[in-house]
Specification:
The complex is a heterodimer. By secondary structure, chain A is mainly beta. Chain A has helices at residues 2-11, 75-84, and strands at residues 15-20, 26-33, 36-42, 45-52, 57-66, 70-71, 92-103, 106-115, 118-130, 135-144, 154-155, 158-159, 163-173. Classes of the chains: A mainly beta, B mainly alpha.
Amino acid sequence: MIVGLALGIAAVMPSVSMKSKKEASSISYSAHHSLHDWTGVNKDVNAVVVLDDLAQKVEKVAVSALVAGFDSENSSRDSHALEVLESLKYPKVQFVSTSINQNKEDLDVKGNLTFHGITKPIQFKGKFNKQQNGIVVEGEFPVSLEEYKVERPSFMLVKTDDLISISFHLEFYP
Amino acid sequence: MKKIISIITLFFAIFSSGFAQDVDSLLLTLDAEVEEPVQLLPDKIMFTQRIFWGERGLMRRTGIMPLNEENRMKELKIRRTMLITHQILGYATLAGMIAQGIVGGKLYNGETQLKDAHESLAAAVNIGYFTGAALSLFSPPPLISKQVKGLNSIKAHKILASIHFTAMVATNMLAEKAEDPKYTKIHKAAAFTAFGAFAGATIVMKF
């Protein structure tokens, strides 16, 4: 009975889920070509975090965004990106965490990234910051285009680098 | 008493399980909140592209390529092949223009035996140039066409394209009269304008 009571009380520890604040959240990618570097930013990100409110620890996070939402301030380049990402067939990029280890502000995140219709496990470091009414989660991780079977865009017959860097800044409020 | 505590415990356990399930389903259904793009064609399409690939373009009216998602994916592959060929032809044409500049310069300085070579090179440059232009002008439209503020590489490329296109047409129109000293300099100036704008349009794409 005591064990049952303990389990019951433990189970109702105050986990809260919060959605990302769109106007303050963004995901961006940075890519490199031998002739130039560029960054595309998506400010229309849908994300949800589950937070252990008492321990102030992130338990789960899920993120979803449209690939068409990335803007590199060059319509031709963005259009080319949508072509190689086959955005009509695979319109979204998604991430769902499978485990998160948190040591104060440092996050060690494992999860599944779905990109170009392929889901692969990834692991990366992130930062957690408590704000007055919510939290900020940010970080960066590399993605190999070829691992996700994305045909690398080429310019002047030279392909872009295989690795792109994805960085994110997500603000969550109840 | 024991019974009451057990009931409370059971209630807590059921309630918490339901809450966890809600959270999981929230994670899984987050995706549903992202709106799907449905637009197959951009709002703005070049008129040369609209003739063939617009909503009521020739490819749609003839039933060769009805406007749907599957066909748009095929069109984007066609577009990429056309644009890569446009690039390759562009480099070849630029090389031809440089050669033409050397030959034309010598011809201008009195080496009249180079007239045939100059004309042959002109034909090759024209074929490369106008084929390359057609590949870009008549390619299927992109998925999106954003209006970006300020000058960027693609805007500069298009501005320079309108300059070198006009200059190329002028160069050709003046070619027949180029032997008349009155027109020789104008023909040369038009040719150099075409070359300068064309080289600029190639280089500017790297930024």
